[in-house]
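Worked problem 6 (solution included).
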Amino acid sequence: MFGFKKNKGKAFVGLSGGVDSAVSAALLKRRGYDVTGVFIRIAIEGYPCPAAQDRIEAMRVAAHLKIPFIEIDLSKEYQERVFNFSIAEFAKGRTPNPDALCNREIKFGLFYEFARARGADYVATGHYARAKGGALFTGADENKDQSYFLWAVPEEHLKRALFPVGGLKKPQVRKLARKFGLPNSARPDSQGLCFLGDIGIEDMLARETAPALGEVRSDTGEVIGTHKGAQLYTLGQRHGFELFNQASDSPAHFVVGKDIARNTITVSINRYPPAASETRLELEETNWIGGASSGEFDARFRYRQKLMRARLSLEGKGAVVTLKEPHYAPEGQSLVLYDGERCLGGGIIRKATLA
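Solution. The predicted structure is:
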């Protein structure tokens, strides 16, 4: 079943211990690639570390497929480039995207360089996305599409990227795992942040930024409640804070402002200012896949968010994107543009203004 048909080149596959990367390795071997499985070890002190069990699962997959298995420890680099940077951004009141940062810095940064230095023609992962000739496309499974997290990967690296499960839907991947007899075919999907196991951003921030109780203020400046720490909230949020004397039938209140220095948040019964009709986003650290030109595209600033029509205006090394509806787009978050199924890249939101 796994015999070579034709040598299509040497592919290093990032084996995470999960089903998606395992099926990716199996598919590549069936298609005639010279496959090597690589386990990227990431361990952050103080966090539940799934690396030990993940490594065992990855080794079992490699043994089953009869492919070489090697390991690379990028714990220090991940902590410096992804973890510490993200914590610092959150502490400033911004909202970074650790998963997009991990793909750029670790999986298609240091791991990519590691693989290429050892003779790999291609680097493969279990992402639900598609790449062709350096162009990036959405995954066939709309519920699993991960192109949003890959927007910052350089085009030159995408030219050497393989996403074997990108053209499949998750049930098909599970079926293939059973068909191939993979030892981890029944393993549940991982949750939480990239490499950190089953832990969410709120838990991470509560641990790392020492949030303190603060005042909730109305849009007229009156103190009307308390919150758990300003850095824990995003604009547009409607829960997670307590209001004084709030009746059960009181209207919902939305976070419309936050002051990190004073540790206050401002809420209003109006989600957006009444006159707001557009959102102007100034981008930095842009990465365009296949070039970019000003025009009308679709955009999102959250994973799985419904695409919105947007106007892109290139301005030197930066860009301005205008969403044709009001939104609280978090500064520091990834704004990604699409033209149909093609992901054009995007940038980091430096400033967001309702207009």
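Discussion: The mean pLDDT is 93.
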